[in-house]
Design a protein that fits this description.
about 130 residues; mainly alpha
């Protein structure tokens, strides 16, 4: 529910991938947030809420392999969001470069931010660049 509310006021790329409720925030003796004492998120809880959908065509199959390599997670379905699976701006740049090199198609970082799923990126790319 928190993420849905944030979507109303923030661009998608600013919505945190993980939200953890804390009863108190740990502090160092200097009264700064003790980042080392913060709990690690259980990433397995943050996979796609829509369930796994396998790639439907060759482009999506190739993209899924590249996404799995960059994110070091498997399997990644076509509805799994890049940023929810641990992607960030640096990994988005890396993925953009790898897709351009391996697939021979220009997938911009902007396209990844706007359409964060394999299905969304592939459909938008096809719509923009195929004739």
């Amino acid at each position: 529910q928190l993420k849905e509310n944030l979507k109303q006021v923030l661009p998608y790329y600013m919505i945190p991938a993980y939200c953890i409720a804390l009863y108190s925030i740990p502090h160092t003796p200097n009264r700064k947030v003790d980042q080392k004492a913060l709990p690690e998120p259980e990433i397995s809880k943050w996979t796609s809420q829509t369930g796994y959908r396998q790639p439907r065509n060759e482009l999506e199959k190739k993209m899924a392999v590249l996404w799995e390599n960059v994110l070091q997670k498997s399997p990644i379905g076509i509805d799994d969001n890049f940023f929810d699976l641990g992607g960030n701006s640096l990994k988005a740049v890396q993925l953009s470069m790898v897709m351009t090199k391996e697939l021979g198609i220009d997938i911009s970082v902007k396209l990844l931010f706007l359409h964060g799923t394999i299905a969304g990126v592939a459909e938008k790319w096809i719509m923009l660049y195929s004739s």
